[in-house]
Amino acid sequence: MGDFIKHPFVDMPDRNPEQVIPNDSLMFTSEEKTQIQTWISRYPTADGAVMRGLWLAQEKFGFLPPEVIKLVAEEIGIPYANAYGVATFYTQYFKEKKGKHVLDICTCFSCQLCGGYDMLHYVEEKLGVHSGETTEDGMFTIQEAECLGACGSAPMLQITNGVFVHNLNKDKIDALLDALREGNVPAFTSVTLPQDEDDLGGNRRTDVTSVESYIVPPVSETLS
Amino acid sequence: MEAKKTKAGDWRSYQRVLLPPVKDLHKLDVYENNEGYKALREVLTTAKWDPTSVTNEVKKSGLKGRGGAGFPTGLKWSFMPPVDPNIPRFLCCNGDESEPGTFKDRQLMEYNPHLVFEGMLIASYAMSIKTGYLYIRGEFADWITLMEEELEKAYAKGYVGKNIMGSDFSCDIVIHKGAGAYICGEESSLMSSLEGQRAYPRVKPPFPAQKGVWGYPTTINNVETLACAPLIINKGGEWFSKIGAPSHPGPVLYGISGHVNRPGVFEYPTGMLITDLIDEVAGGMRGGKKLKALIPGGSSTPILRADMIEGVTMDADSLRDAGSMMGTSGMLIMDEDVDIVSWLRRITHFYHHETCGQCTPCREGTGWLENIVTRLDEGNGQLRDLDILLDLCTQMEGRTVCALADAAAWPVRYTIDRFRSEFEAKCSTDSVPGGGVLETA
Predict the structure, then answer these.
(1) Which residue ranges form the domains of chain A, and what is each CATH number?
(2) Beta strands in B183-290 (DSSP E)
(3) Which residues on B lie below 8 Å from A85 (Cβ)?
(4) Which of A96, A173, A199, B217 could bridge B89 with an S-S bond, Cβ 3.0-4.6 Å?
(5) For residue range B116-168, what is the model confidence (pLDDT) as tens digits?
């Protein structure tokens, strides 16, 4: 029986991986601690705040190695295993170090039909790395994303769990990558409702300056 | 044959109510000037309304859930057990919106956030709830920020919090940020996620109304469903029940994506003819191409061929007769150039990626669906693979804790059923070495 299973199906994670974040910076400031306490107060048990806590930690440290998850668990007062379980369940929590900008390019079915894969492959070619990889300069990570909920303005991408970029085409990607290299992350863009374009002349939120319409880019013309 | 007939009445002159054409409606003062929080004030301060009468009015309206299942909302509210002051009760507003093809709630939260808050408060009043959680998917980080800003303003004005408008009704609203898991849109999984657990769905019964978040009575409604509540109070359940299809009434946000000239979110009554939605509302097919197929309400609703939609309207009954479902009314329109097999491959990939892994038929089944459809798409499949796929679907449907396995199996079953010739055309005629035994991924 001993030889029956020759290879483990999944590599077991390293139980004691080398610590990435040094001990002297592995802590929350008092403001962050207050913020976490506020979140805890909004739920009947402290567990409810774990997702917010992990978000806070990810924004602070960039990703969630075990020592950071442990820090969050201790701050909230829940077992490390629970926090680890939550962190590994959700795709938006980064368990390893990513590039400065993570490009989540949606290829789920609406985007697929509107050229999502063309966009993904264009970015891959332009940056010289595949989906799931990070460029050598540590600037960009490309990821193929599942539906991001902006099907009308497909194809689209999301920058590091934040801003959506709608109605992608080749020129837009060129401009976006240049801007990101210079550290300019695009502003929140409001996509106007077609009925508003008839009734209100487009944008209904006057406080948003970046506005786009829903359009379907002709796939064949987006790539030369 | 009877001529095609819309159930939406004179929809061309329809006046929008969920997203009325008002500039800056997201701002609290603009919202207040447009009957904002009027329904809540009436409910809290006039003797006409008590929790039971609010629920009855919603029942009278015929409102059905807009999140996919289409369960009657008023009935769901009445499932809550009698009030016990020692037992807390919770409301969850489901803004997870992860179903591929669905993007309506995002626009509602962006353009009319206070309508969502007001709807949550009215629902809380109707069920004597003191805390409402608004669960928004983590990808909508910008929209969460926008909603939080508006919520703070609503708190400052006393619309949310302690003793709202001087009444003895207090209710808090908490915005919970998800982190990217499709399964959290399933109600029991959403509850697990709220509690800070891995978002595994739970066995029902006990239903959320008996044992929900933290084991307490809970009701879960979609964002768009709750946004209808203030409208029902303001204009009456009877007014609501006369909009659109009588058996499935009300305004609906149709999210139209894919190969149409004018995609986007449109508000119209239920019961719109699918052909009207494509040809007139969405400006017709892109490039004058022919319609091949469409998905009426998100990825898990069965696909409809172009020849199946004549006279079909967007409401539960008509779509059921046509062989599909209303779902989330996120419509994907596909033109004649679409390769159905590779399109299905992408869907199976989605479900394989998003299965939570709790139940074996789903965890393993979604992987096998993807493997086999991929093999077919690459031209290495055999005819018998189609039967293996259908058998696999039978093994998955109804054998898991939640409906994700069904949602993954239906697209495969119905796409093969309705486009079998395209699958057969892609099958390999060569004999496959090793008797066609598949390799695991």
Answers:
(1) 23-89 (1.10.10), 101-222 (3.40.30.10)
(2) 218-222, 251-258, 264-269
(3) 197-198
(4) B217
(5) 999 999 999 999 999 999 999 999 999 999 999 999 999 999 999 999 999 99
Residues A160, A101 contacting (CB under 8 angstroms): yes
CA distance A203 to chain B (A): 8
By the 8 A CB rule, do B370 and B377 touch? no
- What's residue A84's pLDDT? 95
The reported pLDDT for the residue numbered B386 is 96
Q: Is pLDDT above 70 for B433?
A: no
Closest to B235 in 3D by CA, of B30, B395, B365, B42: B42
Q: Side chain identity at B149, as an amino acid letter? A: E
**Dihedral angle computed from the Cα positions of residues A41, A45, A48 and A52, in that order, rounded to the nearest 10 degrees:** 40
- Spatial separation of the C-alpha atoms in residues A116 and A146, rounded to whole Å: 11
Report whether the peptide linkage leading into residue A218 is cis, meaning its omega lies within 30 degrees of zero.
no
Is the omega angle on the peptide bond into residue B206 within 30 degrees of 0, that is, cis? yes
A114 contacts in chain B (CB < 8 Å): 257-259
Query: CB contact, 8 Å: B177 with chain A?
Result: yes
B21, B198, B214 ranked by CB distance to A86: nearest: B198
Domain spanning B35-241, CATH class: alpha beta
What is the residue extent of each domain of chain B?
35-241, 340-436
Task: ipTM value, please give it.
Answer: 0.93
Q: What is the pLDDT of residues A120-148, one digit of tens each?
A: 999 999 999 999 999 999 999 999 999 99
Q: Is the pLDDT of residue A17 over 90?
A: no
Q: Which residues of A touch B21 (CB under 8 A)?
A: 195-196, 199-200, 204
DSSP state of B171: B
User: Does the bond joining A155 to the residue before it have cis omega, within 30 degrees of 0?
Assistant: yes
Min Cα separation A178/chain B (Å): 23
> What would the mean pLDDT of B286-308 be, rounded to a whole number?
94
Rounded-to-integer distance, Cα B219 and Cα B229, Å: 14
State how far the Cα of A142 lies from the Cα of A134, in Å rounded to an integer: 7
Residue in chain A nearest B183 by alpha carbon: A90
**Letter string b/e over residues B374-389, b meaning 16 or more CB atoms within 10 A of that residue's CB:** bbbbeebbbeebbebb
Residue B179, pLDDT score:
96
DSSP B18: S
> Could you tell me which residues come within 8 angstroms of residue B261 by beta carbon, excluding any fewer than 6 positions away?
A216, B282, B283, B284, B285, B286
What mean pLDDT is reported for chain A? 91
Q: What average pLDDT does this structure show over A69-88?
A: 96
- Tell me the per-residue pLDDT of B183-227, one tens digit each, with 9 for 90 and over: 999 999 999 999 999 999 999 999 999 999 999 999 999 999 999
User: Which residue among A112, A161, A213 places its CB closest to the CB of B343?
Assistant: A112
Written as six digits, the tokens of B385 are: 């693979």
For residue A108, give the nearest of B141, B262, B350 by CB distance: B350
User: For the domain bounded by B340-436, which CATH number is listed?
Assistant: 1.20.1440.230
